[in-house]
Amino acid sequence: MSDELKTRLVGAITLLAILALLWPFVFDDADEIRLSRDAQIPEPPAVEEWEVEPQPKPDPESIGWPAGDSVGGEPADNSADPEQGGEQLAVPEPVFRKAWSVQVASLSNADNAAKLVEKLLKDGYRAYSRIETSATGSIVRVFVGPKFDRRQAASIKLKVDSQYSVNSLIVRYVPTET
């Protein structure tokens, strides 16, 4: 086969391929492709509406909490009257999850620490302080928190650092003995 014949065959095949690709665009029926203007979207299906009645809050005694919880009630009297034949009721120990606080400052002056806590509270932070004593004296540490999520504590740390120009620390929250 000569080179001239090969070139003509390749050209003819190329033209046929291009023609096959363009055929639908050139000779299309516009009425078939165009959507009918009479087409309608069906109505949405009927949805049942549910009425939800508000549930009453459970009584703390019915779910096993002591009556004098930390919400503000009086401490529960767990001592039964021995004359009535009652026995001592055991109060379960509270279970604490891991929590995080932001240590804003460590100050040797308790008045300055109280002012800082007051300022943090005024700015909307949940602030508290703790006094730690050692052989060299006492130090008042000022904290914000606690938060159960370390990411929330890190967010508070960034806000406190920029707002008060400090370099605070994220520390584990340790509940105080009451």
Model description:
The protein has 178 residues and is α+β, with helices and mostly antiparallel strands. The chain is built from 4 helices and 4 strands. It has a domain at 100-172: Sporulation related repeat (Alpha-Beta Plaits, 2-Layer Sandwich), CATH 3.30.70.1070. It has helices at 3-26, 30-33, 110-122, 150-164, and strands at residues 100-107, 127-134, 137-147, 169-172. A 4-stranded antiparallel beta sheet has the order 2-3-1-4. The relative contact order is 0.10.
How would you briefly describe this protein structure?
The protein has 178 residues and is of the alpha+beta class. It has helices at residues 3-26, 30-33, 110-122, 150-164, and strands at 100-107, 127-134, 137-147, 169-172.
Strands of the widest sheet, in order across it, are 2-3-1-4
Strands, total number: 4
Average pLDDT, to the nearest integer?
A: 78
Shape: elongated
Main sheet properties: 4 strands, antiparallel
* Series of secondary-structure elements, N-terminal to C-terminal: HHEHEEHE
**What is the helix tally?**
4
- CATH class of one domain, named Alpha Beta
Distance between the termini: 104 Å
Question: Can you tell me the CATH superfamily of one domain?
Answer: Sporulation related repeat
What is the name of the CATH topology of one domain? Answer: Alpha-Beta Plaits
Name of the CATH architecture of one domain: 2-Layer Sandwich
* Strand-residue proportion: 15-25%
Structural class comes to alpha+beta
Task: Give the fraction of residues assigned to helices.
Answer: 25-40%
* Contiguous uncertain segments of 5+ residues: 68-76
CA radius of gyration: 38 Å
